[in-house]
Specification:
By secondary structure, the chain is mainly β. The chain has two helices and 17 strands. The protein has two domains: 122 residues, Immunoglobulins (Immunoglobulin-like); 89 residues, Macroglobulin (MG2) domain (Immunoglobulin-like), CATH 2.60.40.
């Protein structure tokens, strides 16, 4: 009864900024911390890497999903909003990213989730076959909404994957009909140079698309100069990955591709 009276008093004091507020607020914070700790669950997760699959070959420039199946071995349920933390090869070994579950995984159930998307953008001069390993844990310090006590035994999964080598020339040249398109440097970081051959009267429109077909950058006809002249295109807003460049003048369309690092 005394604690409940203090809680009621705290609301009253806090609202009107009367003396005693600090003491009562501290009591509430202590009670809230105990409640949070009491609500923490124990869930033994088992992880299987689904994508990239064993034996997969990832072409140069290609993007791919990192997909895992999470099995909840119990004893308690995972609910929507519970957060897991994951690590994959392009990250430092001790770093993890959070992922909020979009569907519940009851004790004894499982769910397949796409954690993120990556790309085969490396400087390897030859094809590389390696174990591609993904780790999923409850939280690096086990202080989240649940604790996974078996993170050293079943929270890591690997598949042997081949990554195809990237071209080393640094230049992408494309011939299409009467058009000729050159992109360099390739890969590029903040800008890419575009050169093409065409009639002096041509005023091509230039577009940049991602691999799903979304137009991300557009230069209207007249903004680009035609006739074997260089145009430097700002690509700093793009995320790392492969993109397509399209030049269109009248009925002539020429496309090329480049990698944003």
């Amino acid at each position: 009864m005394l604690f409940c009276l203090i809680c009621k008093e705290t609301t009253y004091y806090f609202s009107y900024m009367k003396p005693g507020n600090l003491f009562c607020t501290a009591l509430l914070m202590f009670a809230g911390l105990n409640t949070l700790q009491a609500q923490q669950k124990n869930c033994d997760m088992g992880i299987t890497l689904m994508s990239p699959a064993a034996g997969a070959v990832i072409n140069a420039y290609a993007s791919f999903n990192i997909t895992v199946r999470i099995v909840n071995n119990g004893p308690q349920d995972l609910v929507v909003g519970d957060t897991v933390w994951y690590n994959f090869p392009s990250m430092p070994l001790t770093s993890y990213r959070p992922f909020s579950l979009q569907e519940a995984i009851p004790s004894g159930g499982n769910s397949t989730v796409i954690l993120t998307t990556s790309s085969n953008v490396t400087s390897n001069p030859e094809d590389v076959t390696e174990d591609y390993c993904v780790t999923v844990i409850s939280r690096p310090d086990n202080a989240g909404s649940f604790v996974d006590t078996t993170i050293t035994t079943n929270n890591n999964s690997c598949n042997s994957v081949t990554f195809k080598a990237l071209p080393t020339s640094g230049i992408e040249e494309v011939n299409a009909g009467s058009g000729h398109l050159v992109l360099y440097p390739n890969p590029a970081s903040n800008s890419i140079d575009i050169a093409w051959a065409g009639a002096a009267k041509d005023k091509p429109a230039i577009s940049v698309f991602d691999l799903s077909g979304r137009r991300l950058i557009a230069k209207a006809p007249g903004e680009a100069v035609s006739g074997k002249e260089k145009l430097s295109l700002d690509i700093s807003v793009l995320h790392p990955g492969m993109y397509l460049v399209e030049l269109q003048s009248g009925k002539t369309r020429t496309t090329g591709r480049f990698i944003k690092q």
